[in-house]
Amino acid sequence: MTQRCLGLLRSRTHFISSSSMSYELFRTPVDPLVKPLISQDRNLVSLGSCFADGIGLRLKEAGFAILANPFGTLFHPYSLFDMLDRDMSLDPSGFLSVHSNTHHYRLPKTFYAPSREELTNEFAKRQSTLHHSLAQNTVLFLTLGTSHLYTKDGTWVANCHQQPARLFHKEVSSLEAMTDAWEKLFPKLPPTLQILVTVSPVRHLKDGLEENSLSKSLLRVLAHSMVRSDPERIHYFPAYEILLDELRDYRYYASDMLHPSEVALDYIWKNFQESLLTDSARDQIKRWERLKSRLNHRPIHPDSAATARFHEQLREDLKAFYESLGPRP
Description:
By secondary structure, the chain is α/β, with parallel strands linked by helices. The protein has two domains: 35-285, Rossmann fold, CATH 3.40.50; 297-329, no CATH class. 46% of the residues lie in helices and 14% in strands. It has ten helices and ten strands. It has helices at residues 2-18, 50-61, 77-85, 116-134, 175-185, 209-229, 239-247, 262-276, 279-295, 305-324; strands at 43-48, 66-68, 95-98, 101-104, 138-144, 148-152, 155-157, 169-172, 194-199, 234-236. The strands form three sheets. A five-stranded parallel beta sheet has the order 2-1-5-9-10, sandwiched between helices. Strands 7-6-8 form a three-stranded antiparallel beta sheet, with no helix packed on it. It has a two-stranded antiparallel ribbon with strand order 3-4. Strand 3 and strand 4 form a beta hairpin. Helix 3 packs parallel to helix 5, helix 5 (175-185) runs parallel beside helix 6 and helix 9 (279-295) packs antiparallel against helix 10. The relative contact order is 0.13.
């Protein structure tokens, strides 16, 4: 038995050492996208699912000028494209009252106001900010979450706002319809805009794994079509493939088995930096992460003179960091 085990070990070792494939043991790395689009002087906009929130927050913390999900999380491509194409108004038929607050069917559940007028005004304000940001030297990061769509009276909605299920019809949007929506939108976007598109690695399991796979596969093909429409301006970042094909283990999911764990997010974030940030932008993040580590430090003797000096030096270093960023775009 021992000789047999040794023989198997030798054969496996020979296979690994003699293979001409380029891969690391127990891991098949995703080919990196090398496109250093993001620099300190670049304006950034991030729209999409909660994964877009996560990347946006990390960039904002590190001092980058980013507008991240100003309307809240948007999951379906229609919702994303609609916000990029919409003027400052909201369709009057889409307003509804939920728990004494005013919502709108084209907006996420987290975006509401006490009255219709206040919601309309706040929406116009945020939409104006979005359009202004897109017109700058901007990189737009779009995260596609799902191709499942809910409609009410023949019109799609961004959120059902806890209304009775009987009011809505659920369907899977066709690739043709989503591609057509993109092709109508793209010529209207600023010609200087650089676009990064990704498929969210967050799983939507309410309707089962089969439906989630169908939904994500349609989004992946849509992303491919978007890139092909203008490869010089549109680029794909493989967050979905990094989690599902490279990390490929339940230990990289949070306890809900749907969202990436902090370890997975850190790994994707590192890949994001190496793929898309300039050298100086990565240096800025390293400086911030060192400062953040000091901010999170909990002194053993908080009232000591040494701790007071530590905090004073930290304040000076934080001030120097933000001053070094210069004027924001």
